[in-house]
Write a structure and sequence with these properties.
The chain is α/β, with parallel strands linked by helices. The protein has two domains: 200 residues, Rossmann fold; 188 residues, Glycogen Phosphorylase B (Rossmann fold, 3-Layer(aba) Sandwich). The strands form two sheets. Strands 3-2-1-4-5-6-7 form a seven-stranded parallel β-sheet, sandwiched between helices. Strand 13, helix 16 and strand 14 form a beta-alpha-beta unit. The radius of gyration is 22 Å and the shape is globular. The mean pLDDT is 95.
C-alpha cells in the first residue's frame, strides 16, 4: 500500500471515524470535546519554542513523565506540547502536568490536518511514544525539516503482523523517522524486519517513573482507613470481563476480613462495574464517595483517575489487569516499583520482556486463571515473609532497569 492509497482509504473511513466519536461519547461525553483539533484547527498558541511529544492515551502519557520532566529541566526556555487521541489521555496529562505543558488532540492522519497542526505549532522536535506510525504526519515532518523520533518504541507480535500486511507503506514511514529508540532487543528486531534502519535499544521509560510521595502518603492513609489488619488484594487496571471472573472466585480466597479493591482500566466502565457488584449482592463503596470504610465492606471500587500509585501503596498483593483475558496486560512495572508482590495472568504480550524479567527476578508470579489467582493471592496474603521477599525483589528489579530517559535524551540530542 502506498501513502496515496492509504490516504484515500482514510478519507473513505471518515464517516466511520465520526460515528466512532459519537458512539464513544454515549458513555464518555468528553469524546465530543476538541473535534476541531482532530482535523488540525487550534485556538491555543505557543509563547515559546516547542518540544512536541505525542502520547495516545493513559499508558503513554504516564510513560512520558520522566522524559517530560528531564526536558523541562534541561530546556526551560522551551514549552512542552503534549498531544493525545483519547480523553483519558488528555485528563491524565492534566493531572500529571497541570498548566506546565500545553495539551491538545493530535489530528487524524490526513495530509491537510497534519500540515495545519505542524504549521500552527511549528515544533522544533517531535517524539512519538511507543507504537505510533502515522504515515502522513511523519512525511509532513520530513518535508518541513522537523526531526521526528519514535521513542519508548514497542512492537508486539500482534502489531508486527498488522504492520507487515502493508510492507511498502510501513517501511517508507519507518525510514522517514529521524531515529527510533526501542524498548527491547525483540522490539528493535521486529522494527528492523519491517524496514527500520535506525532502531537502537534504549530501554523502557516506565522503569524511570518514581512513585510520587504524595500518592504514597495518600495510599498509607487509605490503608489505615481500611481497618487494622485487613488483608488487601488489589485488581489494578481490569478490563471488560475480568471483574466477572474475579468476583466469581472471590469466595475461594478464604482469607478472613479480606478486602478486594477493583480499579477498572477505563473510567467509562466505572458504573458498569458498580452495577456488577450490586447484582452480586456484594457490599461495596466507591472511592469517589471519599467516605470512611465500613468494616462490613467487601469491595472498594476505585473509580478515580491518576491515583494508581496510591492504590498500590494501600494493598498487600497486586493483580495486574488485562492479563486474565487476551488484552495483553497493563503496566506491571508500577506495582513492582511500589514494592508489592505482583500476580498476572497468561496474556502479557504488551509487556512481554518486562513480565519475563519480573518472573525471573522473583518479583511476580504468573497464574493460568482466576482459580489459580485466588490460590496464590491467599498464599501471599497469609505468608508475610513470602510477600515481603517478592516486594523487595520488585524494587530491585525496577532499579536494575532504570536509565532509559538518559539514553533517549542522548539519542535525540536534546
Amino acid at each position: 500500500m502506498t501513502r496515496f492509497v492509504y490516504t484515500l482509504l482514510l478519507y473513505a473511513l471518515l464517516p466511520r471515524a465520526l460515528w466512532h466519536l459519537l458512539w464513544r461519547a454515549r458513555r464518555q461525553p468528553a469524546y465530543l470535546r476538541g473535534i476541531r483539533e482532530r482535523f488540525g484547527y487550534y485556538r491555543q498558541n505557543a509563547t515559546r519554542p516547542l518540544i512536541w511529544i505525542h502520547a495516545v492515551s493513559v499508558g503513554e502519557t504516564r510513560a512520558a513523565e520522566p522524559l517530560i520532566c528531564a526536558l523541562q529541566a534541561r530546556h526551560s526556555s522551551h514549552q512542552i506540547l503534549l498531544t493525545h487521541m483519547t480523553p483519558t489521555g488528555w485528563e491524565t496529562g492534566e493531572t500529571l502536568y497541570g498548566d506546565k505543558v500545553l495539551r491538545c488532540y493530535l489530528p487524524y492522519d490526513y495530509p491537510g490536518s497534519a500540515a495545519r497542526f505542524l504549521d500552527h505549532f511549528r515544533p522544533r522536535v517531535g517524539m512519538l511514544m511507543e507504537t505510533e506510525i502515522w504515515s502522513n504526519l511523519i512525511h509532513a515532518c520530513r518535508q518541513r525539516g522537523v526531526p521526528l523520533y519514535l521513542v519508548n518504541a514497542r512492537l508486539s507480535e500482534k502489531s508486527f503482523a498488522k504492520y507487515r500486511r502493508f510492507p511498502e507503506l510501513t517501511r517508507t514511514s519507518l525510514r522517514e523517522l529521524t531515529r527510533i529508540a526501542a524498548q527491547t532487543q525483540d522490539d528493535a528486531q521486529r522494527l528492523a524486519a519491517l524496514g527500520a534502519e535506525n532502531a537502537l535499544i534504549a530501554g523502557n521509560l516506565k522503569f524511570d517513573i518514581a512513585p510520587p510521595m504524595a500518592q504514597l502518603e495518600l495510599g498509607r492513609a487509605w490503608r489505615n482507613g481500611y481497618g487494622k489488619g485487613r488483608p488487601v488484594l488489589l485488581a489494578a487496571s481490569t478490563r471488560d470481563g475480568e471483574e466477572e471472573l474475579l468476583l466469581s472466585r472471590w469466595g475461594d480466597l478464604q482469607v478472613p476480613s479480606a478486602l478486594l479493591v477493583i480499579v477498572p482500566r477505563h473510567p467509562q466502565r466505572f458504573d458498569e462495574v458498580a452495577a456488577l457488584l450490586a447484582r452480586r449482592g456484594l457490599r461495596y463503596q466507591r472511592r469517589s464517595d471519599n467516605a470512611s470504610i465500613d468494616p462490613r465492606t467487601q469491595v472498594i471500587l476505585g473509580d478515580s483517575m491518576g491515583e494508581m500509585f496510591a492504590y498500590y501503596a494501600a494493598c498487600d498483593v497486586a493483580f495486574i489487569g488485562g492479563s486474565l483475558l487476551p488484552f495483553g496486560s497493563q503496566n506491571l512495572i508500577e506495582a513492582c516499583a511500589a514494592g508489592k508482590p505482583v500476580l498476572f495472568g497468561p496474556h502479557t504480550y504488551n509487556f512481554a520482556e518486562a513480565a519475563e524479567s519480573a518472573l525471573a527476578a522473583g518479583a511476580a508470579l504468573r497464574v493460568a486463571n482466576a482459580d489459580e489467582l485466588m490460590r496464590e493471592a491467599r498464599r501471599l496474603l497469609t505468608d508475610a515473609g513470602a510477600a515481603r521477599r517478592m516486594g523487595e525483589a520488585g524494587l530491585a528489579f525496577t532499579k536494575a532497569h532504570q536509565g532509559a530517559t538518559q539514553r533517549v535524551l542522548e539519542l535525540v540530542g536534546w
